[in-house]
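Exercise 7. Predict the joint structure of the components listed below.
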Amino acid sequence: MKMIDYQIITSGVAALLIIIPFAMLMYMLLRDKGEAILCMECQQCRAACPVLQNTDEYVGPKDIMVAAKSGKYSIALERNIQLCATCAACMERCPRKLEVDALIREISHDEMNRILSRGTIEYLQKIPNPKMQRTYEAVVRRFEGKELNVPWDWITRTFRLRKSYNPFDDNKMKPQLKTQAVKGAEGLRKIRDSIFEGDRDEK
Amino acid sequence: MKNKIEIPERLVFFEGCTTSRALPETRLATYIILEKAIEKGIIKEYRIIPNERCCGYASMVIGDFKTQKENLIFNLNAMTRIGIPDVLFTCGACTQFLGNDPEFKRRGFRSINIIEFLYALAKRSDLEKLIDRKLPKGTKITGHYSCHLRRLSGVRIEKLYREIARALGAEYVEMKDATDCCGAGSEGEVAMKIAKKKVENADNSGADFVPLVCAGCEAILAVASRQAGTKAKFLSLSSLVVSCFDDLDKWIEKLGGAIEKSAEKKELRAGESKSASKAEKPGENSE
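Solution:
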């Protein structure tokens, strides 16, 4: 009868005892932060960013990554994260192809809502166009009324008394359609005439 | 990378917010292309989404994820009811945002931008069949490579632009920093600064026209070029193609009214939001 090789079993158990806690630790570290932990802060993204070339008030892709790594999102959110042009130039330049663009979406929804709505009110005061202003007001109202009107919202929605206000709904835009069709027709004729100016004279 | 693009026989046309509200020329031109393609027998049918909503990108940018999800589910349900898997977009942001969405992919939909559609036509030499005359000799065209299409959607846009320019009989020139952002995703003064740089680059390349395939780019670059007073004209690719039609006036008269009717039809077809639209009407009048 062959003897059982206890040495293999003990070494295997020892290896598992080391690997399992390490894997758990890595999982806990990586779970919330996703790709952000892979960022090595080489600043290539800052060089590529078109927004940073034009303003100093923007937080920049590298700092967004740092904020996500440390979990302190307020670093990014308080410094005009909404200026991001979502052009993914940072992703293209990044040696590890990390998506800052996707990260902004991942950042906690509630916090983003709260801070961005404050930013929109400040932005609203600068806009000269009344149409745009009305849209933004509606957006801000929606954000601000969220906490106060929860029961009222719930009641009206469940009994279908009122549809929740959606600034992007098509129904709001219907009266413009007729004038738009006329505008489109005029615009297309103008473009055609501007392209074939020379040809018309020959005919 | 999307390399093979086949022309689907049946399409769903997703208008998108910016195209349908801010860019009436692009909207009308795309309808004309689709109608004429049906007449020539290139495609069989196209459908529009009744009471179509925003793709959700605008809501996502301001952090309103709730509206984004509502809109997504509404649109996807409507598309599933139509039952056509190929969706045509005139906007780069919609192409990318819906095309990369996991739920959109799971239901088996495929997003096609207008430039991919026109490229597929040009490759089969159907685009020459579609247009009646080519652009005047010596016309130069340059392309702006939309970030959402090139980087995030993986469309090889530089190749597509060249093929279409060849089919339209124009010379293709490359502008400096063609892959740079147009600034439409950003806000306020910063966006205009980025756009001005882009407009300058396009003007220096010596091109007459800059055909665009993204509604966001078109909206901001048209304003920036008007402010700077450039020689190069910024317009949508579909309106450039449409101006090569001889019977353009006939189509404009035919479709200018038809689009309004389709909007009314939309209202009738959508049973769900009928009561909601009625309830909202008094509010509109008071504003």
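Discussion. Chain B has 15 helices and eight strands.
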